Amino acid sequence: MVALAFEDKYDTGIIVTGDGDFTSAVKLAQKLNKKIIIAHFARGYSSELNQTCDSEIILDADYMEGCYLDY
Predict the structure, then answer these.
(1) How many domains does the chain divide into?
(2) DSSP secondary-structure letter at 8?
(3) Are 38 and 57 within 8 A, CB to CB?
(4) What does pLDDT average to over the chain?
(5) What is the pTM for the complete model shown?
(6) What residue numbers bound the domain in which 44 lies?
(7) Can you give the CATH number for the domain in which 43 is found?
(8) Mean pLDDT calculated for residue range 22-31
(9) Please, are residues 13 and 39 in contact by the beta-carbon 8 Å criterion?
(10) Rounded distance, CA 4 to CA 29, Å?
């Protein structure tokens, strides 16, 4: 995420994690004018990381409902 931010390869990044260890990487990407969205499950995520990101996607049953195909 950080390397690609330095190379200006994206404007908005989506990080799929709840791990607070990524907070400093998110802050660095944001200093490079990148918007970072966090996608996480409803429980078990870092509130610090969540607050650091620009917006969030909660991966719950409602969000996932349209992702499945019936064959």
Answers:
(1) 1
(2) T
(3) yes
(4) 93
(5) 0.86
(6) 2-67
(7) 3.40.50.1010
(8) 98
(9) no
(10) 9
